[in-house]
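I have a small job for you when you get a moment. Can you supply me with one protein entry, sequence and fold together? It will help me judge whether the discrete encoding reads sensibly. Write everything out right here, beneath this request:
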Amino acid sequence: MVKVKQIMSTKITNEALKYIEKNPMENLDKLLNLSEKVIRRENHKEIHKKFKEIVNDPDSNWYHLLERYFSELSSATRQKFMVNFMINSGMLGIPIQYEMMEKHNCNVPWAILIDPTSACNLKCTGCWASEYEKTDSLDYETLDRVIKEGKELGIYMYIYSGGEPLVRKEDLLRLAEEHSDCFFLSFTNATLVDEDFAKKLGELGNFGLAISVEGFEEETDMRRGKGTYNKVIRAMDLLKREGAPFGFSTCYHRYNTETVGSEEYLDFLIDKGCMFGWYFTYIPIGKDAVTDLLVTPEQREYMYHNIRELRRKKPIFIMDFWNDGEYVNGCIAGGRRYLHINANGDIEPCAFIHYSNVNINEVSLLEGLQSPLFMKYRENQPFNENHLRPCPLLDNPEYIRNMVNESKAHSTQPIDKEDVEELVKKTEDAAKNWASTADRLWEDRVKDEKIEV
């Protein structure tokens, strides 16, 4: 197999990098013409076509996002985002992943979510990571091995969670330097971001941050502790100054949904320098989970409509992971497009599904993808023909119950060995309540957009 890093030394990439640094907006059309030579998949050709439309529409919010990309990010970030993220991880990596899926008869993901440590300097209300031991960590050699094995499968996107990943920031910077052909992203509370770290991210270009924020000061400090919000804002200012890549990660729940789904909130974060935003809905994991934080069907529908409207007019890329299931044909977990490895090494199908059959300290990444629970995911996906009900826990809890039991997976929560029957009891009512709303929205969507089901 030809290595992606060898392909990247070709004339196509070198020419593309020249276009990025010299009159980028004027040269975008030439850049897209060059990229046609490396596109292999039909869906990528469709994306390419849409990019061409954006480039020729200066009034588009996506055009303005590209302008932000070229004016606000460092030179290293612009180059690494295009080469590592768009080309290595996208146009070249994805076809390899599909080849590996067929060869090994298992899911092969686009991204790996991995926890370098379970340690954290905060204790946020309702955080699933609180169910892990705070002393767990994966050594540098294991993290490095996972990335090397992932690249053999065509995986060039690596995301960190925890715990607070930046407790290990020196190791994470070293990994980004060592694997300069990959793109890295870390979920973070941002309280450990300082001037030196922000500067290093701007220089590297292939390591970005998804900063956790729950709204404005009142909403953020309610879950994350007094003073956290101000530290987050300072971190954003430092990162923007250095042209480092970053965006926001927001968990919406019963008490902040109307705030974080508002235009005012998004405008503020765009102004602070966020290039992307990831929305997650609250999931009650662990014995002390606060079920009162679960959103109502009305709130989830509010996010459904608002995110779509804001996405059409704001110069930022935003996603709502549960409500955007239609764009990825349902659940992406179980290695279908991503998996999770916790700080103890347990290979889990999802960051919110704390069950496993295998541990990365004992098996290869490929063996983890072929483990019983992962194969059950592959067998059952999608879990619902209505992709607005994608999740096997929040939307179709009977599936996670059956998959865990049939695969004989064990709980990976050392503090609370939560039985799957106890887990689904907390989401069954929410699933039933959302079903009728989701079905109505899906029927309208299929009719209006002519979505294939």
